[in-house]
Amino acid sequence: MEEEPLPDPKEYAAELKKIRFRRLLLWLVIGAYLPAMMVALDSPDYRKWATIVFVSWIVLLILAVGYACLARCPRCKELFHTHGPTFLPLRRCLHCALHVKADKRPPEQNHPRARFSKKQ
After folding, report:
1. Which of 29, 48, 72, 109 could form a disulfide with 64 if both were Cys (CB 3.0 to 4.6 A apart)?
2. For residues 95 and 15, what is the distance between their CA atoms, to the nearest angstrom?
3. b/e sequence 40-54, b meaning 16+ C-beta within 10 Å
4. Residue 95 and residue 68: Cα distance in Å, rounded?
5. CB atoms < 10 A from the CB of 23, how many?
6. Which of 83, 81, 103, 105 is nearest to 93 (CA)?
7. 3-state SS string over the chain?
8. Least confident window among 25-34, 58-67, 95-104, 106-115
9. pLDDT tens sequence across 41-100
């Protein structure tokens, strides 16, 4: 049984750029917590500001995770980082194993299998 050739990843450049932006946004929100909390704890009214920073950060985190979860893979049209109820911000699509930087890398000779593919 022959496998059909995969399309050129450069066709997916715009969609992969959106996925990379969503991932960057998620990691920036996660990374902003510690510096923001350190500033809040250094203020004179630290309890009030720590509470404000924490609640604001949780809301931003929920929005960033939701935004990243809803990114669709340009190759298989499934959710890129989500398989069932599980959110895994990995670098490959959980369904077809498309790399998040496939448009910037040379084509892969040995296409990796997706770990959670429906087509096993």
Report:
1. 29
2. 16
3. beeeeeeeebbeebe
4. 16
5. 20
6. 81
7. CCCCCCCCHHHHHHHHHHHHHHHHHHHHHHHHHHHHHHHHHHCCCHHHHHHHHHHHHHHHHHHHHHHHHCCECCCCCCECCEECCEECCCCECCCCCCECCCCCCCCCCCCCCCCCCCCC
8. 106-115
9. 999 999 999 999 999 999 999 999 999 999 999 988 999 998 888 888 888 888 888 889
CA distance 26 to 47: 26
Q: What is the mean pLDDT of residues 11-31?
A: 93
The pair of structure tokens assigned to 83 is 């398989």
